[in-house]
Amino acid sequence: MRGVVMINFDNKKILVTYLLHFGDVVTITPFLEILRRHAPNADITLLVDKKLQDVVIYNPYIDHVETIDKKGKDNSALGIWRVGKHLRKQKFDITINLHENERTFVLCLLAYAQTLIGTAPKVMRMFLDVYTPFDIFMHASDRYIDILNQLGINDTYNHGLQVITSEEWKRVATLFYEENNVISGDQVIGFHVGSANLKKCWNPANFAKVADYFANKGYKIVIYGSNSDRKLVDETVSHMETIPIIATGKFTIGEFIAALNRCSLFISNDSGPMHAAASQKLPIVGLFSSGNPTKSGPYGTNSICLKGKEVFEFINKSFEFIDSPEFVSPDEIPVENVIQAAEKLLKL
């Protein structure tokens, strides 16, 4: 049973723990904004995976970023103990844990804050001072905001997803575009054809058809992604009749997010880069298979999400839960639906 437990966060040392993936880290930024507004004098530390620190290093709502090298030197019981011991030395007043992950919750226990709030694996919830259950019918960002609702914070206005970029990242992005003859006045459409889960990837041949359609209308096509996306990018390009700009593997996470600001539109599989584009307020065509667009679509920006033949429009409106099949092959999304969605967003 849900209730409200009033917590005073101001003038406290607060640790927020969240060790999920790229897009997930982007989705907690509204939570951080609201927490800061209600605790202007607090000292807020965020713990994230080391490889994702670019996402939050310049976030104006936190004071410190701590990292754990999940897949590297900290990927052991000794590594977890070492990080936990480091956190404990900082003597936090409050820890807020945002995900039911065993490793993360062990770190929360090792940090040994005076008050432990949030969520935990079911068998560990007895160690929480305040348990804040998730509403599974909310958008992911709203679920984190709802934690604050349960702690007595009702003013939840926010600016959507936010990732702040550095001048150096912007300089690298600008140089890349100059080297690829993108000039003032060019309209750029960004594509992300990969995903950490290959089952979520739309057919590269279909991406190629959409890219060619807009290239023939005069748009500059830029295909982003990490080196792990290279095979899908190469396959997409092999089906294209026009020549795109390849940004795959060219940027760090921070540089990539800075580079997104040159785009007029972003077309992407359901992935971390899709949420990164939302953090820069780009209009987005999101291609879904296993996720529910009303629970994990691009937050705080105009978007049209497609799942099979279903169309979910989020244009100047917030997310409301709509049931959706658990999995639909991404290849059931018609090419013409993607083009129509893109054209509609480009006209806004």
Structure in words:
It is a single chain. The protein is an alpha/beta fold and 348 residues long. The protein folds into two domains: 13-149, Glycogen Phosphorylase B (Rossmann fold), CATH 3.40.50.2000; 167-346, 3-Layer(aba) Sandwich (Rossmann fold), CATH 3.40.50. Helix content is 33%, strand content 17%. The chain has helices at 22-27, 29-38, 77-88, 102-111, 140-149, 167-179, 204-215, 230-238, 253-260, 272-279, 293-296, 335-346; strands at 13-17, 43-49, 64-68, 94-97, 115-118, 130-131, 188-192, 220-223, 245-246, 263-269, 284-288, 303-307, 310-314. Helix 3 (77-88) packs parallel to helix 4 and helix 7 crosses helix 8 (230-238). The chain is globular, with a radius of gyration of 21 Å.
Helix content: 25-40%
Enumerate how many helices there are, as a single number: 12
Biggest sheet, spatial arrangement of strands? 9-8-7-10-11-12-13
Structural class: alpha/beta
The CATH architecture of the largest domain is 3-Layer(aba) Sandwich
* Overall strand count: 13
pLDDT averaged residue by residue: 95
CATH topology of the largest domain: Rossmann fold
As residue ranges, the low-confidence spans are none
Question: What share of residues are in beta strands?
Answer: 15-25%
Query: How would you name the CATH homologous superfamily of the largest domain?
Result: Glycogen Phosphorylase B
* Number of separate domains: 2
Order of helices and strands: EHHEEHEHEEHHEHEHEHEHEHEEH
CATH class of the largest domain: Alpha Beta
Rg over CA atoms, rounded to whole Å, is 21 Å
The N- to C-terminal Cα distance equals 43 Å
Shape: globular
**Largest sheet, described in full?**
7 strands, mixed
